[in-house]
Specification:
92 residues, mainly beta, ATP Synthase, domain 1, seven-stranded mixed beta sheet, 4% helix, globular
């Protein structure tokens, strides 16, 4: 029995003030409390706390990143939702 692996992930990054990102991406890396976690399409469902570090995502070889200092991430095979806490400087 074969399962189709999605070709991309939908990434949504939500802060207390705004929707920071909402895009289809190839991969996401998040800073969990246990270390950095790489997420590709088809990832098993997971709910994790975020540590301090960079959330990085790539689409077609182009990468973007932004710093977080906590929060949570809900990960599924086709969707990653990051509820991020940013520093005051990053929120403005």
């Amino acid at each position: 029995m074969s399962q189709d692996i999605p070709s991309s992930l939908r990434l949504r990054v939500i802060t207390s003030r705004s929707l920071l990102a909402d895009a289809d991406v190839d991969e996401v890396t998040i800073p969990s409390l246990e270390g950095y976690l790489g997420i590709l399409p088809g990832h098993r469902p997971l709910f994790t706390s975020l540590g301090t570090g960079l959330v990085t995502y790539r689409l077609g070889g182009r990468g973007e990143s932004f710093p977080v200092r906590g929060g949570y991430a809900e990960i599924g095979p086709e969707l990653v939702v990051v509820f991020a806490e940013l520093s005051e400087d990053e929120e403005e």
